[in-house]
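Annotated sample (chain length 252).
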Amino acid sequence: MSVAPEKQPLPPWLIWVGSAAIVFHLFALLIVVLAVSSGPWVSPFGPSPQEPPAFAQGIGELTTRLYLRPLQLSSNYHFESNKTEYDSVYFEAELRDANNNLIQTLRFPDEKASLSVWNKQIALAQSLGLDDPVQPPGGEVITPPGKAMPTVEVWDAPEGGGPLKLQKIPITRIPRDREIYRPSDLSLQLAKSYSRYLCRQNQAASVELIRHHRRRLLPVFVKSREGEPPVEPLPDAFEETICSFGEYRLEK
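Output written by the structure step:
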């Protein structure tokens, strides 16, 4: 009759190593959750997301790149298609040849594109519509001797009229009586990258991306509580804002 071998306890060092690995794994997942912007929350500029803590962003980038991404656990399930607070955005691409003659004008998203391509074009258009509010300085700005006044690139109307264009202005000239915006770093990077792609794909010398943007209509403008007067929408709620990212020339 065989006797079952006596069970040996795990070595303490193995228990500590296993526990540390489990704690690190849970910590990496928790950091991914903390490193995601929340909202949208009510702000003076309308509903806007709240940025995550800076420490979570820094640690999250490191743990995601070195640990979670190889395990395919880096997604925080905050997809662009789930965000319904975006404005209505589409953009046009005016392609020109070396003599600055208009070749063709493309509109995105393209209604004739396949469903998968159409969804990607919608995500691109929404990303191009991400603008950041520009705040004027809180006090008087004094530059050191020999230094120029800092500037900021904002959407501003050109003197001759037409679409809003990117213009650099000193921070002391930021208006205080109205809201002014600038494109986000992501939208600028995407505009340049997609312009390069369109030039090469269509054998064009230059391209200009023109964004058409309309604010979303909040539910409070459509239906109000019983017994309360309807909320009046903003004056430009039904107006379309046209912005040009400028001409991009393909470098030879």
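Annotation: The chain has a mean pLDDT of 82.
Annotation: The first strand starts at residue 38 and ends at 41.
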